[in-house]
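ugh finaly. both done.
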Amino acid sequence: MSFVWPETRSPVGPSLTLPHARRSARVISIACGHSGVGKTTVAANLSLALSQMRRRAMLVDCDPGPGDATRGLGINGRESIDDVISGRLTVDQIVVDGPDALFVVPAGPADGRRREIDMVARLKLADAFRVHRNSLDFVVVDTPGKADPDTLDMVASSDLPIVILCPQSDYFMEAYATVKLLSLDHEVADIAIVANRIEGEAMGRDLFRRFADVSKRFLGSTRLSYLGGIPDDEHIRSAALRRRCVVDQHPHARAAQAITALARTVNTMAIVAAPGGDSFFGLEAITHAR
């Protein structure tokens, strides 16, 4: 399969006006410190919303399970990202057509096992994806729902790390711990925050303000930015039961409108490519050092 969109046109926008930009694709990782905060829902809906905006978008599912992003889109892929990591197949051979011209790289079988996307695996992914560095605008990665070193290193190596923040105290602290590790152990300079399951935008902004205040103790030079909030909306659960995304199934719902606004924000950001700019998966420096 080749990555060809209907009526494809050259992408435009601030992110591609940078003089050193040598690839159009920007890798966005969606992360959290604990499962259950809606990370996968955000990843699937954001990637689909970007595709609906005629952006050349791909969802890479690195978090397999019964409710993973692949199955949430109604896709049952026979091949998966595991086949790319093992070298058995190429990205072109496993990519699946999703709704609205979204391309999906499926997760592995929902057998309860967690795939280890370690450094070796990520180097293989970098090699596999590099040929498509100018065929895409956005690559949204649903990372594993845990804060182990390999997952955090993958998040840190993306062009735009997004951490999901929820108002519940335990989820709040998990997000805090994730940002702390990204800042101290991985020296991430910019981290974006999306507030999820909030009552309204005022609550989301207040939640972010409190989170930023707490985070000032350790952040150093790391900057936090608030991209927006997604309200707690029954339409999300209704769409999930039908194995669909809310932006597709209920486009006029509050949550769908919020995610579409989030996609517009991402689309207008000047996302700087990771150092090197000529490889993929945010691994330019590592790949070139081999």
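ok and the 2nd:
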Amino acid sequence: MEPLSDRYLREHTSPLPEALDWIEKQTGIHTNYPQMLSGKVQGSLLKMLVEISGARNVLEIGSFTGYSTACMALGLPEGGHIDALEINDELEDLMRAGWERAGVQDRITLHIGDARKTLGSLAPKVYDLVFIDANKREYPEYFELVFPLLRQGGLLVADDVMLGGKVYADPLPQDAQTRGLLTFNDIMKDDPRVEVVMIPLKDGLSLIRKK
């Protein structure tokens, strides 16, 4: 059951186009882990971050069923573009159908495959905003690969950084996902090249600005 606080947040967030409801419904029907979807509040925040930052070039690492991609694409100015990286090719038809319903398909290029390999092929592109929501074990690697592609003053948004409380549990879990996020979070805290604010939205969201 949805927590009352989550319901209140959702009900007091501006509506998104019907196409996003369609993507959410199809995600529930066709995937085993629909809770991985960003959802209305986080999706609306991503859209607003694109808008207020003036981002024209966006990179997404981990698109799942394309909900967050569509939200960010809706916030792009004319001529803006998203490179969306997703490893699961079985989700491609659902993603493309949702993007077409939202009218943003022309703003998105989908790259299917291992994000670490794809990132190596994107240079010398430069991005204004990067959203990471993929394999938690690999967040430290994603950061090292994507940092040179992010412009100075650009924004990196990392999802699931609290991992259901695992990152501050006592004792700390030793699974690979938790270790990956612990390492990533400590890197963000200590790296003088960035400033970070972690907010408790859903499973934790870090807003990271490249100085």
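summary for the 2nd one i guess: The beta strands are 57-61, 81-86, 108-112, 127-132, 150-159, 194-199, 205-210.
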